[in-house]
Amino acid sequence: MQAIEFTSKSHDKMIPIPEHYQDWFKKPVKIILLAMESSPEENVMPQQTTDLNRFAGTISLTEEPLEFQKRIRGEWL
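RESULT FIELD:
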């Protein structure tokens, strides 16, 4: 079974198929309709910037980072 996906709006009880799928126009097809809750643009999260400098100096390391990696990786071997 082949499948295509596109977004469309029905007009006068008809759902138009995009022209670039013209080879599907005369094929028998199974139709599944999914109603969109909102437009895709509404689902996009707004870009938020975070100033990472506010976290500077909040963590104090108790071990040198490379030594920590060697120790942890040694446990996996």
